[in-house]
Amino acid sequence: NSTNLLVENILLKNSPYWTFLANDIANLEIRYTDVDARRRPDIHYHDLSEITAFNTDGFDVAGTNVWIHDCNIWNDDDCIAVKEQTSSSIHSSCSENMLFERINASGVGLT
């Protein structure tokens, strides 16, 4: 768990699994950060071969007061996935108060 975390100006590239995971976080801001988890970097569209890159989630977050903005995400699974808090979470009992804006997303979905 963490409190008051800023992530900015990073390129997260070619992750074989969930790219960015934040569990039990309070006050997280992610800005100007890009995720590029393409199966083939020369392809700029999704096709059947691209969807074989399962679990290349972009941002997976569980916590409170999360702001993700001005980011680009290209993957073949969830671009942003809101995860549940667990019974051992310190900061809150559920994921809440999250804002996602100005995001260019190309993947399977946004939660």
UniProtKB/TrEMBL annotation:
Which Pfam families does this entry report, sorted A to Z? Glyco_hydro_28 (PF00295)
Which Gene Ontology BP annotations are present? carbohydrate metabolic process
Which Gene3D superfamilies does this entry report, sorted A to Z?
Single-stranded right-handed beta-helix, Pectin lyase-like
InterPro entries documented for this protein:
Glyco_hydro_28, Pectin_lyas_fold, Pectin_lyase_fold/virulence
Keywords from the UniProt entry: Disulfide bond, Glycoprotein, Glycosidase, Hydrolase
Q: Specify whether Aminoacyl-tRNA synthetase is a keyword of the entry.
A: no
What GO molecular function annotations does the UniProt record carry, in alphabetical order?
A: polygalacturonase activity; rhamnogalacturonan alpha-L-rhamnopyranosyl-(1->4)-alpha-D-galactopyranosyluronide lyase activity
Concerning its family, UniProt says:
Belongs to the glycosyl hydrolase 28 family.
Please report the name of this protein according to its UniProt entry. Answer: Uncharacterized protein
Report the source organism. Rotaria socialis
